[in-house]
Amino acid sequence: xxxxxxxxxxxxxxxxxxxxxxxxxxxxxxxxxxxxxxxxxxxxxxxxxxxxxxxxxxxxxxxxxxxxxxxxxxxxxxxxxxxxxxxxxxxxxxxxxxxxxxxxxxxxxxxxxxxxxxxxxxxxxxxxxxxxxxxxxxxxxxxxxxxxxxxxxxxxxxxxxxxxxxxxxxxxxxxxxxxxxxxxxxxxxxxxxxxxxxxxxxxxxxxxxxxxxxxxxxxxxxxxxxxxxxxxxxxxxxxxxxxxxxxxxxxxxxxxxxxxxxxxxxxxxxxxxxxxxxxxxxxxxxxxxxxxxxxxxxxxxxxx
Length: 304
Known about the structure:
Jelly Rolls; 8-stranded antiparallel sheet; globular; metal ion binding; metal-binding
């Protein structure tokens, strides 16, 4: 099932293609949010500039094909990520961070920002940040596969995870194909970052997410002109979620409390979300809550 994404402004200078959540499919495993940005020419501008903002109940997973991003957060992290490296930020009960293109920065920016919903037994834990300078890679003919999260083809990512997950980048040379082993208990999603690929007869191009249900033990991916893809997978996440702004919770009351705590944190030093130091700008204010109660949805988007 091909699901078209839509464009969303991110900060002042960046527009992203949002591929998850969508109305017919809100999650793939515990993956609950996927933004694809670029490739953008940032040679004449500041590039990505996302001021300090909060998160609860999730992990952010940052993956670049081109460019650099400087990450700062309220646990004291200061880390530049480059292509082939991985940043994973675990919000737990609460964290805040900023993302920006460093000065100077490469002329092109291109990558993915993904969220993973934390299960109930992990979402109240302490905040942490992990940077992985190298990731496991295997080649198969004209395919190069990087195991970003989880395990694939006998290779294990070092990335911290709290539920059964897979994240892998697949780069195909023109005319190449690869057969990937899958876990039949997982559901999967594939996005194209560049180029077109044939997956089970579907022509996957940038701007859409291809959803694949459970029950598959392998998958053949082909590309006539070459492509860069990202494969998501995981066991279905059966905990209902309330997702609003940058928060992932379970009830309206949790979200309202997180919003109030952020408004206090951005005006005061410390608090639940801490302080991001060194960013040249003010923290983002939280939007107003909707006038109706926020309701939990399951992974299909059904209101509960």
